[in-house]
TrEMBL record:
Region (Disordered): 55-74
UniProt biased composition (Polar residues): 55-64
Protein name according to UniProt: FLYWCH-type domain-containing protein
FLYWCH-type domain mapped to chain residues: 4-68
InterPro entries: Znf_FLYWCH
Length: 74
């Protein structure tokens, strides 16, 4: 997972053409939610994405699938 920072300094992650907000950490594991968790890719709360990932050191894995396409420009 590529580590990024938002304009406000929040932790962002980029994995397989999807962007994630850092949700929490426990030990060496970090847990990530899709940036469209609160409101869907179309801006509607009814289509919010449940995509999740977990990272441990240099390894990262998607644990929940997304309900939208990835963004190759990200």
């Amino acid at each position: 997972m590529e580590a990024l920072r938002s304009e406000k300094g929040k932790h962002l992650g980029h994995l397989d053409d999807f962007l994630y907000w850092k949700h929490s950490s426990r030990g060496i594991n970090s847990y990530w939610r899709c940036i469209f968790y609160e409101s869907g890719a179309d801006g509607e709360t009814s289509s919010k994405c449940r995509g999740r990932a977990v990272s441990s050191g240099t390894e990262a894995t998607m644990t929940q699938k997304h309900n939208h396409f990835g963004d190759r420009a990200a």
